[in-house]
# Entry
Amino acid sequence: MTKEQILEALKNVQDPDLKKDLVTLNMIQDIAIDGKKVKFTLVLTTPACPLKDFLKKQCKDAILKQVDPYAEVEIELSSQVTTARKQTEELLKDVKNIIAVGSGKGGVGKSTVAVNLAVALANTGAKVGLMDADIYGPSIPIMFGLQKEPPHMVERDGKTWIMPVEKFGLKVLSIGFFVDQSKALIWRGPMISSALKQLLTEAIWGELDYMVIDLPPGTGDIPLTLIQNFPLTGAIIVSTPQEMALADVRKAADMFNTDTIRIPILGLVENMSYFVPPDMPEKKYYIFGESGCTKLAKELSIPLLGQIPIVTAISEAGDKGSPIATDKKSLVTRAFAEVAETVAQQVAIQNAINESLGVK
Ligand SMILES: Nc1ncnc2c1ncn2[C@@H]1O[C@H](COP(=O)(O)OP(=O)(O)O)[C@@H](O)[C@H]1O
Ligand SMILES: [Mg+2]
# Structure
């Protein structure tokens, strides 16, 4: 066997999302051949790649079929998270992907989804930051149990910097650490936007694969100002399945897509989709109907990124200061892991689209 034969065979394996073969995508590296043994590294676009096992099998089959039916194939997985950030952008330049989580209205579980998505991404090994920009109701201090541990300040190069708090394997900051909420409520868009900009530019975030931003709810001036100011990779909209909530999702989708703003919508997350009785974890009751968000996602031509059940453990975990996705045994953790996979997948697709359009 030769390296060339292996590459030739792997040219026939396509990444179904990126619609190109793995060799062209530069995803095959460090090929080593020793007799019947062939070993290489498959470099994925995210450690949260839901196609890992599929791609591994396709590679193996291609080599057995086209090179040697007796080859012993060993594939190591690694990842290099992609980015479409422009090199000229100064704001958060070491952050590869910035994902905003928005909602048509409050109380649908936007913060719950933002926080657990960030934890689930970090669980895969990605470098993750979480920024709570919800001026109306910052939730990270409580959900992370940080009310009594605000971030430290450090002096560096004659300047004072904010150190994001590290907990559960990710870095977090909340507007709630710095701003008295009763005062913030009367603030206007530009003031909020400059306070948040400070959290982004005067904090030492370091290199991140993903930064998740919990936006203020709704489609008013403040979320809009923020959307315009963050160099976003894309947005996620959270909704519950009731008709009333769905009407607001359309407005949220419009907010990301106006004449002047074009932020790719990565998809819709349906929260409180179904009820799972604690004593019958195999049962699912779709108390608000089964197809609400599925239909709407189709209508808006955006992916449905996942469905999260309604279970008391989610709100209890939030109140206790350790998000549910930190509990490896919880069934809900699996649901959030799936959301993380589909989000990371959509980000990779978006970055590939931007690259082919020459946005760099
Ligand atoms: N899937 C769920 N199951 C049970 N409780 C939930 C779920 N999602 C959110 N909650 C609870 O509902 C309340 C509102 O959620 P939150 O994430 O704060 O919403 P938002 O940020 O949209 O205002 C919180 O008390 C939260 O714990
Ligand atoms: Mg919230």
User: Anything to note?
Assistant: The pocket of magnesium ion (ligand 2) is lined by residues 110-111, 134, 137, 139 (CB under 6 Å). The first helix runs from residue 3 to 10. The chain has eleven helices and 15 strands. Residues 189 and 222 are 5 Å apart (CA to CA).
